[in-house]
Design brief:
The structure is a single chain. The chain is an all-alpha fold. 78% of the residues lie in helices and 0% in strands. It is built from nine helices and no strands. The chain is globular and about 40 Å long. The termini are far apart.
Length: 137
């Protein structure tokens, strides 16, 4: 039944609305995964935000390597935007966190955090900058 509900998701905002109140990590993941086909028609930013949601859901289901792949795909996708967007900052920070979990090596996870701070300063989004600075500290 989740597949039928998610298959017609028009954009990331609608996916977010459908995820409200879904606390079970397995159900959240299924709903996000089921939106994959529909998301191909979304804007690049919406696709990137969906991939971040997917990564978070994969983390909640203890699938760390798959979460890294989702964040990595989001970073690649969002870097293709003509101008940096807050979602790129979020994707870099989430990828950095998973890199930290996987390696505990600052040489591996800190470059994403440094890039996130640089981008957040460029775009002038206060929330993105605050998140980037806190995670870089």
């Amino acid at each position: 039944m989740l597949a039928l509900v998610a298959a017609n998701v028009a954009d990331h905002a609608e996916l977010e609305r459908r995820l409200e109140g879904v606390d079970d990590p397995v159900r959240r993941l299924a709903l996000i995964e089921d939106s994959a086909e529909a998301s191909r028609q979304w804007s690049r930013v919406d696709q990137g935000e969906r991939l971040i949601e997917l990564g978070l859901a994969l983390e909640a289901n203890h699938r760390i390597d798959d979460a890294y792949a989702a964040y990595d795909e989001a970073v690649t996708l969002l870097r293709a935007e003509p101008k940096p967007v807050p979602a790129l900052v979020a994707a870099l920070l989430e990828r950095s966190y998973v890199s930290y979990l996987r390696t505990n090596d600052a040489r591996v996870y800190c470059p994403d955090r440094e890039e996130a701070v640089r981008i957040a300063r460029t775009i002038g989004d206060a929330e993105a900058l605050a998140n980037a600075l806190v995670k870089h500290a």
